[in-house]
Amino acid sequence: MRTRMLRCIPAFAVCLSLTVAAACGERASGGTSAVSVTDVELGRSLKPDMTIGDKTDSFHATDVVYVTVATKGTGPATLKARWVFEDNQFVAEDTQELSPTGPARTEFHLSKPTGLASGRYKVEIFLNDTSVGTKTFEVN
Questions:
Q1: Is the pLDDT score of 69 beyond 90?
Q2: 45 in the Ramachandran plot: left (φ > 0), alpha (ψ -120 to 50) or beta?
Q3: Which residues on adjacent β-strands are paired with residue 58?
Q4: Angle at 102 between CA 99 and CA 108, to 5 degrees
Q5: Rounded CA gap, 108 and 83, in Å?
């Protein structure tokens, strides 16, 4: 009886391994996936669906500069926008925690009551502290 049980253990282990592998394969192909960035847009206005209404890379000092980040996937994630001026002078940084259940858009913006200084700027987008895109723009 005991040798019969010992012979069943390897067969059970093989069945268990195949079950685990099949379950992992289902999750990778048809289940949830981590959040990833699919697009970054820059412009002067936002539409109700959080897309950019007036795409541009040229702004006036009194404009609000909007950037929207399109994502896909599900689960928790952190998006960050870091705004810099000319030769990497820090201007501002904003972070938003996400927990999307599918495609989503997140908005960040930059403005100053006294107006933005003229020159070249860039906004760099980070997903979970990894850079995923940069947009450059001018303020005249």
A1: yes
A2: beta
A3: 138
A4: 60
A5: 10
Task: Tell me what pLDDT residue 7 has.
Answer: 53
* CA gap 67, 51 in Å, rounded: 9
Q: Is 123 exposed, middle or buried (0-12, 13-18, 19+ CB in 10 A)?
A: buried
H or E element at residue 123: strand 119-127
Beta bridge partners of 89: 85
Please provide the size of the chain in residues: 140
Mean pLDDT of the chain: 85
Prediction pTM value: 0.76
Report residue 7 as tokens: 């012979």
pLDDT of residue 133: 96
Q: What is the pLDDT of residues 11-56, one digit of tens each?
A: 444 333 433 333 333 333 345 589 999 999 999 999 999 999 999 9
Q: Which of 135, 74, 76 is nearest to 109 (CA)?
A: 135
Compute the distance between CA of residue 108 and CA of residue 91 in angstroms, rounded to an integer. 13
- Contact between 104 and 67 under an 8 Å Cβ cutoff? The reply is no
DSSP 20-46: HHHHHHHHHHHS----EEEEEEEES-B
